[in-house]
Amino acid sequence: MDAEFMENLIFKAEALIEALPYMQLFSGKYFVVKYGGQAMVSDEMMATVVADIVLLKHIGIKPVLVHGGGKEVNEMMRRLGKEPRFVGGLRVTDDETMEIVEMVLLGKVNRHIVALLNRCGARAVGLSGGDAGLFQARVKPFSPGGSSGKDVDLGRVGEINWVDISLIETLSENDYIPVVSSIGADSSWESLNINADHAAGELAGALQAEKLIILTDVEGIYQRTEKGTRFISAIKEKEIRTLIRDGQINGGMIPKVEACLRALEQGVARTHIIDGRRKHALILEIFTDAGIGTMVTL
Amino acid sequence: MDAEFMENLIFKAEALIEALPYMQLFSGKYFVVKYGGQAMVSDEMMATVVADIVLLKHIGIKPVLVHGGGKEVNEMMRRLGKEPRFVGGLRVTDDETMEIVEMVLLGKVNRHIVALLNRCGARAVGLSGGDAGLFQARVKPFSPGGSSGKDVDLGRVGEINWVDISLIETLSENDYIPVVSSIGADSSWESLNINADHAAGELAGALQAEKLIILTDVEGIYQRTEKGTRFISAIKEKEIRTLIRDGQINGGMIPKVEACLRALEQGVARTHIIDGRRKHALILEIFTDAGIGTMVTL
Amino acid sequence: MDAEFMENLIFKAEALIEALPYMQLFSGKYFVVKYGGQAMVSDEMMATVVADIVLLKHIGIKPVLVHGGGKEVNEMMRRLGKEPRFVGGLRVTDDETMEIVEMVLLGKVNRHIVALLNRCGARAVGLSGGDAGLFQARVKPFSPGGSSGKDVDLGRVGEINWVDISLIETLSENDYIPVVSSIGADSSWESLNINADHAAGELAGALQAEKLIILTDVEGIYQRTEKGTRFISAIKEKEIRTLIRDGQINGGMIPKVEACLRALEQGVARTHIIDGRRKHALILEIFTDAGIGTMVTL
Amino acid sequence: MDAEFMENLIFKAEALIEALPYMQLFSGKYFVVKYGGQAMVSDEMMATVVADIVLLKHIGIKPVLVHGGGKEVNEMMRRLGKEPRFVGGLRVTDDETMEIVEMVLLGKVNRHIVALLNRCGARAVGLSGGDAGLFQARVKPFSPGGSSGKDVDLGRVGEINWVDISLIETLSENDYIPVVSSIGADSSWESLNINADHAAGELAGALQAEKLIILTDVEGIYQRTEKGTRFISAIKEKEIRTLIRDGQINGGMIPKVEACLRALEQGVARTHIIDGRRKHALILEIFTDAGIGTMVTL
Amino acid sequence: MDAEFMENLIFKAEALIEALPYMQLFSGKYFVVKYGGQAMVSDEMMATVVADIVLLKHIGIKPVLVHGGGKEVNEMMRRLGKEPRFVGGLRVTDDETMEIVEMVLLGKVNRHIVALLNRCGARAVGLSGGDAGLFQARVKPFSPGGSSGKDVDLGRVGEINWVDISLIETLSENDYIPVVSSIGADSSWESLNINADHAAGELAGALQAEKLIILTDVEGIYQRTEKGTRFISAIKEKEIRTLIRDGQINGGMIPKVEACLRALEQGVARTHIIDGRRKHALILEIFTDAGIGTMVTL
Amino acid sequence: MDAEFMENLIFKAEALIEALPYMQLFSGKYFVVKYGGQAMVSDEMMATVVADIVLLKHIGIKPVLVHGGGKEVNEMMRRLGKEPRFVGGLRVTDDETMEIVEMVLLGKVNRHIVALLNRCGARAVGLSGGDAGLFQARVKPFSPGGSSGKDVDLGRVGEINWVDISLIETLSENDYIPVVSSIGADSSWESLNINADHAAGELAGALQAEKLIILTDVEGIYQRTEKGTRFISAIKEKEIRTLIRDGQINGGMIPKVEACLRALEQGVARTHIIDGRRKHALILEIFTDAGIGTMVTL
Fold first, then answer.
1. Residue C272 to residues A291, C214, C246, D13: CA-CA distances in angstroms?
2. Which helix (H) or strand (E) holds F235?
3. Residue B169 near residue B209 (C-beta atoms within 8 A)
4. Bridge-partner residues for D93, per DSSP?
5. Is the confidence at residue E148, as pLDDT, over 60?
6. Residues A146-158 pLDDT 10s
7. Mutate to test the interface with A, among F175, F279, F286, F288 (most CBs of A within 10 A)
8. Does some domain include residue A2?
């Protein structure tokens, strides 16, 4: 064993030791991780995200994943000759579309994540929010606002009104990692299409999670000022409201900050929006004081 | 309350009481039910099957469902412009087909069964055999036999070599009803297409189930004799071998009897092939001495 | 299997399925059943009552039986040359009578019920309220009222002032069915003769039972009106007080309604007085929306 | 506090300390105590026996009592105008006699012992061997031998063929003291009259008890020799056979030694026949090296 | 067995029975016993104290021992050439002294007590208050008062500000007897010298113990009156304050009464200062109504 | 966050991920670590050893420490005017020496390690092998061999003949880290001086530990060959015997290899002798494929 190799090893050992206080802090706590869509850019990137999650499990944290899969749904719709349609950022979801959403999310995206986790030695279990009353939802009322003022029928787009965490608890306490597709069930157990960020926020809140971490494909929240664009590493509710009003937070970032605020209201300690394309983003966020991405607090 | 109404009620009460000895006999035991495909003929029929299963749960039995969905897979393949192809009764499963199988089974058939169960007040959870090492499988070697003698590459068609029952146990003991799609995972956690009858047989064996019940769309096994066709209500392994050799058991019935024999070998007490289109077929089988369908024993 | 036989079976299966919502509703709850005396008319009738109770056990309900046995006590007293004597409906219980009460209730009536239950496959255990502090009682003060105004010494007639449910809980949670004779123990652990209806009411209250069901030998409560006699299927406390004042509720029905009211005050959800001579009276009451007999509520 | 009082106290404290090694030895073990009949001579004597048993409970031993009550049965039979009849030491038990046996044992003798125990602060529960399959018995075949050679129908006299200890275990582990009447149930759950010594021996064997202690009204076993009568403090199976053959062990002592041998065969460590009329006989036996009475070993 | 020997045995049996009500009263409760120093006068005396404690364990009480060892520390200091120094009754504890305190208490006094207990058949475990956060302490601020008014640096003398009882609970519930040296740990886990009486008082309070018993080398508290010296068998807080003011309670008795009051404030039921040189002092205190020593109450 | 800092972080994250397979492999297993003496060279070095052990705990391993402390004992003996004496590498241990050994090991070395662990956020508990029957030992028979042939009385030097692991299990399962001084108790619970390497080997064997790791102050085992000195990274029993015979393994290394062999014989999977002066030696050994030091196998 030459000296350089040894030094390298020692450097690595120190990395483990540095993580110790965080292990002690977070042991036994739930971490809800929103993953999917834009953050799932390449198999290589996904492999590091997934390894990070398995690591969390092994040091005593209880990770739970929530995912959507808009891009994959669009693709399958087009293969089946249907053009995706959106109003106000929400997918118009007729019954046939709902069927496609369910097949793509549960049969493809969810399985992909589960297989990656299992390949890392985890015991992952794929779930739908429709399993055993997990995401109890209703059709989301929708007024797009604007001058027209006409209500738009988005079809089977839903919002969660109750989360039954007992299935997640049963699985987490038995050392499984639950991976949940953002699908809900209405009161007659018909499926509803739920925004995955919102689903993650509600689940984190219901679990009284220690952290909600939303992995996405930007570094976090930016603010345009006179001096140029500034990265925001920590932001509070009030500033978020201002930035939304000013249109600086917009598009897909809006459900993300809404999910953070919803989780925080229900008692989640910390919420983060971070860049899932960055190698080991989760570990960097969790095991360093500095953290990465944007932390959202009340 | 008039007399006739009352008499009717009393008659029903007696039906409950008659079921008592069977409740006592089967309490706490696993029943594996193969459902799906041909047996899922109409929503009305499915409602009675599902209600029967929820009843089993409530009187202390632990039901576990396994399903396939060949017809639905064919349909979706055609919608996506792929013609289903079979060799020796087995679906040729290239990678794209495997993806479709997974989407249809997990995103459609499984969800349909789960929703029906939940609508009956159960707490059903949909699973893939790829979850947490449930169905550990390998590519099935296949020689079609015959004069050609050439091996056929069926692609991702698999057979189970190990069942990890811990996930099923965790869920059953916490009062959930597991509904498992007949998909396995190979040693690199890639999905394999498993025959649903075989999957049910292996799972019943691994769980040391009390019963394996295969619901199908015929009454059971028939035998052609000189005097005409005779229904067989109980059959042993040896006779099965003879009937297979004679071609009297053929086609889709072959994996069913194989599943029964495989389960019996591993210690399952009784196996049954019954007609799922018959109203309350499960209850009739379980709660009457006569039983219905064909019982297969060693 | 001919068609008629089959149809009959299906009809029975449907009876089981109809009971499903009630099973879901009552699972894990205590049902206290007052049985004995007048309701125990024939072995055949007793067999159906007992089968009903065993059925309750098997679908997850926790039944507890309480019984008296006035008629059998009278008979034994006469065989031993003692004439039973009653004041205001209460048995004058000298020490020798108390000994006879205990022998008859514990050694005869209780054993009869326990044997019937065990014969049905249950694991029944006979108890006295004097076991392990179950019914802690005191001598009941008694002023018969009327012009004479003299206090009457009823001897060892008692009323319960504390129920220690831990023995019932231990047995019920271990799947035994407790059968309790209506005998209490005073503070020096001497036995007291307790009215069995009252004992059932107190036990139901202490257990926070879902239901108290008093089986008797009339259909329920009747009211005489100008138009003739009317059966009352549901009655509230206030009306009961009126009917007692008018003498329409009298005799042995008084302790029954008192027991119901006492149980209701302590939080029992529903109480019923039903005709134990009717076949499967318990199942009819529990598993039909209509119910039978008279339901007493606050 | 004067010196003499103090010295007395210290002497008592030393008695407690001397018992320590026995407490350590017997902690968590079952002790089956046959009590009743001749040993129950006076309330004062019974009070010391019962206090001893409650003490055993408090130092970690699990006492279980078994009792008969021949004398009390005879008395009640006579009061009811029936003359008790015995053949070969066994009570001829017609159906009416069986009913009397059950009433006297369960309603009188059992309750007396339970009340005494509860008065000492124990939580005693009276049981019949007919509860929940505790003593599963059959009619005892009986040939009295002798010249006549005719079989005698003893009626409902039984012998135990299976003991289901689960009820005793449930109660003992929840800190109750079970008090069991020597009544069994045949396969149709009809009661049978069991010899109480035999019942105690079978129960001790089934429980793998540490000790079987039979309390009686003689000091133990005596042997007549040429030099006079000799008390035997320890005896082995072989000698017992000899003494029975010689008629030196006879009458009521025979079932006692049989019970000891039967318990020993099934693995009970030690069995003792001791004089229940002696004050604190149980404690003297258990907490002194010398012991009292006759110890029977294989 | 001669009559006198027998009578003696019966007398002893009665001593056991007399203790029964106390066993019932104290079963499952914590008793904290301060032992050590002056009370540990001879091996013979220690043997009786230790046997008493093992007896408590065997009858269901949970004893916990706390000890100091001033005399042994002084001795070792002198052997190492250091003269012990005290201010206001407190040992001046420089770092080297602290090291000696720790060696003597943990390596000598604690081990002596543990060995004696184990020799009696107990499973004793020696602990430091520094183990797993048991005694969390801080340096005790100290102003000796008087004319000089100068603060004195006592070095590593501490007082407890938090007791983490989880280690004691884990051990007690697993049938071990914890023996704790009166050493605490400050917030950087450096050891502090804690007064053993105070440590016992704080531990009793934190455990919500039934009793705190301080064994010492005087009979209890005395009061000088005009008529001579009077032994006080029960005293209340107010009188204690008076006796301290009058100088009648002084020296080593002060921390003892302080410990009693501190325990009482936190909910301990009774506290006692008794003479550990008296044979079986603990048993006499616990198992007699009269008790011995001085009982301190609020 | 600049790029270099980020890269550094990512490098560290990768170190954590690389450890993942080892975490999965060792989760829930016991690791016995012999520490102390020569390996405890500086506070800085000790801090890294201790942090490594706390890390093991946090990733699901159950570490148990065993320590001696020869150097510290020598020092204290000299301070007390006693010259340490050794025969055949074993300390001559008269009673006074034994007392010093106990004070130094339990009161000094053990406390030092416990405090270091607690400072790292662990819940460490110091134990003696004399606690609750942990190390049951006997005086070691000793013949130094050689020409003289005379037996030498080494005094209180012992060897373990039974390890009672229940205390270690209780503590480990409740998340404490046990730190055990190498002291045993003979059958009269007198202390014996046990070689710490041997103690660690016996404990590892009794616990069926996954690994025994002996930390020392050399890199491992070396072999002198004609070509010079060669470091041995893996060695088997047979070679060890040869090297001992050749005198190449000698002195303090002999008990270390003996301990390894003894542990292996009892089923320990792997044993290692590694250099405790090397920073993070434990982590390097456990979390790298190469490992460090010498691995001893059967």
1. 64, 6, 22, 59
2. strand F234-236
3. no
4. D155
5. no
6. 555 567 789 999 9
7. F279
8. no
* Residue A85 forms part of a structural domain: yes
Contact F125, F178 (CB under 8 A): yes
- Least Cα distance to C180 among C28, C281, C29, C34 occurs for C34
Residue A103 near residue B103, CB atoms below 8 Å: yes
Q: pLDDT for D185-211, tens place per residue?
A: 999 999 999 999 999 999 999 999 999
The average pLDDT across A2-29 equals: 83
Distance CA A204, CA C128 (A): 52
Position D241 in a domain = yes
Rounded CA-CA distance F155/F138 in Å is 11
Question: Quick one: average pLDDT of F209-213?
Answer: 97
Of these ranges, B37-41, B173-177, F284-288, the one predicted with the greatest mean pLDDT is B173-177
Partners of B262 in beta bridges: none
Task: Answer whether E184's CB lies under 8 Å from E136's CB.
Answer: yes
Does the pLDDT value for residue E13 go beyond 90? no
Provide the domain count of chain F: 1
What band does A31 get if pLDDT is binned at 50, 70 and 90? very high
| ipTM for this model | 0.93
Distance from CA of D183 to the nearest CA of C (A): 11
Chain A nearest-CA distance from F230, in A, is 13
User: If you measure CA to CA, which chain B residue comes closest to A190?
Assistant: B115
**pLDDT tens-digit series, residues C239-290:** 999 999 999 999 889 999 999 999 999 999 999 999 988 888 898 888 877 7
Minimal Cβ distance to E24: which of D12, D16, D58: D58
Contact list in C for residue D111 (CB cut-off 8 A) is 102, 106, 128, 130, 191
Of E105, E99, E123, E129, the closest CA to residue E40 belongs to E105
Helices (H) then strands (E): counts for chain F: 10, 16
CATH number at residue A195: 3.40.1160.10
Set of chain F residues whose Cβ sits within 8 Å of the Cβ of A13? 15, 52, 279-280, 283-284, 287
| pTM recorded for the entire structure | 0.89
Q: Are F144 and F86 in contact (CB under 8 A)?
A: no
More confident residue, C58 or B6: C58
Pairs of CB atoms within 8 A across E/F: 114
Nearest to D189 among C118, C132, C188 (CB): C118
Cα of F45 to nearest chain A Cα, Å: 13
CA atoms of E199 and C219, how far apart (whole Å): 71
- Residue C23 within any structural domain of the chain: no
Identify the domain containing residue F155 by its residue range.
28-297
Residue among D27, D55, D58 whose CB faces E27 most closely: D58
Query: Is the pLDDT reported for residue B38 higher than 80?
Result: no
User: Are F111 and E80 an interchain contact pair (Cβ–Cβ within 8 Å)?
Assistant: no
Give pLDDT, residue F148: 57
List pLDDT tens digits, range D221-270: 999 888 889 999 999 999 999 999 999 999 889 999 999 999 999 999 99
Could B118 and A99 be called an inter-chain contact, meaning their C-beta atoms sit closer than 8 Å? no
Residues of E in contact with F188 (CB under 8 A): 119
pLDDT at B148 > cutoff 90: no
Distance CA A264, CA A298 (A): 7
Please list every residue in chain F whose beta carbon sits closer than 8 Å to the beta carbon of residue E130. 111, 114-115, 118, 126
CA distance E262 to E239: 16
The single residue listed with the structure tokens 């009306």 is C239
Calculate the average pLDDT of chain D. 91
The one-letter code for the residue type at D200 is A
pLDDT value of residue A10: 81
Chains A, B: CB pairs < 8 Å: 115
Q: What is the DSSP string of D49-106?
A: HHHHHHHHHHTT-EEEEEE--HHHHHHHHHHTT----EETTEE-B-HHHHHHHHHHII
